[in-house]
Amino acid sequence: MNNTSLMDLKAVIALANHRNFRSAAVELDMSSSALSRNIAQLEHHLGIRLFNRTTRSVSLTEAGLQFLNRITPALEQIDLAVQETLDRRATPSGTLRINAEEGMSRQILHSVIIEYIRRYPDVRVDLVSDGEFIDIVKEGFDAGIRFASTVPQDMVAIEIGPKQSMAVVATPTYLNTHGMPHIPSDLLKHECIRLRLPSGKIYKWEFTQNNESLTVDVSGHLTIDTYMLAIDSALSGIGLAYTGHWFVAPLIEQGRLIRVLEEWTPHYAGLCLYYPQGKHPSAALRAFIDLAREQRLLPSYPIL
Length: 304
Description:
Layout: H1 6-18, H2 21-28, H3 32-46, E1 51-53, E2 58-60, H4 62-90, E3 94-100, H5 102-119, E4 123-129, E5 143-147, E6 155-159, E7 164-170, H6 172-178, E8 194-195, E9 205-209, E10 212-216, E11 223-224, H7 227-235, E12 241-244, H8 245-254, E13 258-260, E14 267-268, E15 271-276, H9 283-295
Parallel strand pairs: 3-4, 3-5, 8-11
Antiparallel strand pairs: 1-2, 5-15, 6-15, 7-12, 7-13, 7-14, 9-10
Helix pairs in contact: 1-2, 1-3, 1-4, 2-3, 5-9
């Protein structure tokens, strides 16, 4: 458009509609004198008068009317394109990459992820379950989900779930046969399902009571590497499992598992969704955060 700006064209339309410099200037949020200069400069640039001016009135010339008829549809299309772009930015779309440990992924899968996909079909969710704590910025993730105590300080952390606790569980049949443990050290007399950490180390079961913390290096014939496998193994009646209460709450309610040592199992902060400071969340991420807060990750997913 050479030296002609969109504001110059909008000035022509506003003045043609109002036929008054003051009213047109109010619409454009500028002074009457500035509007007059814009129109005069445009006319000078075009080499033709667009408006007839008197002390009492403003009217379009024939050339001005022709110019107005040509630019109005074009500006309407430009405004529409801008609005559609703004709407697209405000509407969740694209791909959302989330990193979380496997157990946390299971917590958010049904209560958040599935519902999110139903609500926002224009978004593709890439959920990566990783036992190792990774740098989500370096690895190209939009956000991560971890326990609040493990979120890096340079991240924005948003609580998306209530406090949680660990649980020691076994089937009624196992406990009827082998007896009920009353204190953590009793576990040394029991068959326990051991957990191997991503580092390769065997996890020592953690307990706390009255500010006293201790660990028990349990023994057993079976060692697995996920909490879900531990639960499945416990359901078979092979021994005691140590896992998150969130996962076994429905099974305890159903009577398929019994919780023991409840007064000894530690509580910890709930899950947090986090993303880098200084990064404006996309519409897709904002919608995900809102849904996660809404759902609050209640233990409503039954493990079969």
